[in-house]
Automatic annotation (TrEMBL):
Gene3D superfamilies: Pancreatic trypsin inhibitor Kunitz domain (4.10.410.10), Thyroglobulin type-1 (4.10.800.10). Residues 259-292 form the BPTI/Kunitz inhibitor domain. It comes from the Eukaryota. This is Kunitz/Bovine pancreatic trypsin inhibitor domain protein. GO terms for molecular function: serine-type endopeptidase inhibitor activity. Residues 144-159 have a biased composition (Low complexity). Disulfide bonds join 215-222. SMART domains: KU, TY. Residues 181-245 form the Thyroglobulin type-1 domain. Residues 1-21 form the signal peptide. Keywords: Disulfide bond, Protease inhibitor, Serine protease inhibitor, Signal. Residues 139-160 are annotated as: Disordered.
């Protein structure tokens, strides 16, 4: 009886493992995944809170970011796209390649010779425009690959079109691999990999620039940054109310000499002691810089 129970338990464990592995493999990283607030129990440890991170998915032929709960110790966590250019390479380029493959299939297997000529001509025109906008000289290896492709296949319009497309794809892939990413994404990658120490992980916009409002790891404080990701002085808030970065960034630094500048009450919610020079009384006067 004990042996039977042991066998049943082993079968159930195997089934659960297979289902879990299939569920992880079936996750499409190009689609948005649900946010999870807590991480599963690993090796008997108490479940912990997940880390708030941004991941990218494809929406309306564009890669956009969304919040996701990351668990560092969860081996079954799906591999999602951390950077926009990775999402574009995997999701958008895959869709373009599928459309091109469908067009090539139609041109190869069209019964009507007139229709086949029209489709092939349009394909050549599109590839010609594509090459003119993205072409750069091929290396010796790429040229040899194109030459061998032409010798081993029939000399037809569709074959030459595919050969040109493959040659251009090699250059585009090379360009994509070495294409520089935005400064915000570079800094985020350096912090997450441990190469750079910082008290916060920057949040980037869809275009890779710094989000004006940044917060600490646990959201215990928030502050504003400029386009270079540098914290704007006196913008940090340690309360639940987040600073109004749009108003703070509108506050222009006086263009003239500071001793003859008028009083600027400021856009902040805090109250800070500042001084200004009163020309009539000819001495410095104290005032509260807050905006309230």
């Amino acid at each position: 009886m004990e042996t039977s129970f042991g066998q049943v338990a082993l079968v159930v464990l195997c089934c659960v493992t297979v289902v879990a592995s299939q569920s992880v493999e079936s996750v499409d990283p190009c689609k948005r995944q649900p946010f999870r607030g807590r991480c599963p129990s690993i090796k008997g440890k108490i479940p912990t809170r997940s880390q708030f991170v941004l991941r990218y998915y494809e929406r309306n032929s564009e890669c956009v970011s969304y919040p996701f709960g990351h668990c560092a110790d969860d081996e079954n966590e799906p591999m999602l796209y951390r950077y926009k250019h990775d999402c574009e390479k995997a999701c958008l380029d895959k869709a373009k390649h599928t459309e091109l493959s469908s067009a090539e299939f139609s041109s190869d297997y069209d019964i009507s010779s007139t229709s086949s000529t029209t489709v092939t001509s349009n394909t050549d025109d599109n590839i010609g425009k594509f090459v003119s906008s993205t072409w750069k000289p091929l290396s010796d290896d790429d040229a040899q690959l194109s030459s061998s492709s032409q010798e081993s296949t029939p000399a037809s319009q569709a074959t030459r079109s595919r050969t040109a497309y493959n040659a251009v794809s090699l250059n585009l892939l090379r360009d994509t691999e070495f294409k520089g990413i935005a400064e915000c994404e570079k800094r985020r990658e350096a912090i997450e990999s441990g190469l750079l120490k910082s008290d916060f992980v920057p949040i980037c916009t869809n275009h890779g620039s710094f989000l004006p409002l940044q917060c600490g790891p646990e959201g215990e404080y928030c502050f504003c940054v400029d386009h270079n990701g540098i914290e704007i002085p006196n913008s940090r808030s340690i309360s639940s109310a987040k600073p109004n970065c749009s108003e703070i960034m509108k506050a222009q630094k006086p263009a003239g000499y500071e001793c003859i500048s008028p009083v600027d009450s400021g856009p902040c919610t805090a109250s800070l002691t500042r001084w200004y020079y009163d020309e009539k009384r000819e001495y410095c006067v104290k005032f509260q810089y807050s905006g309230k």
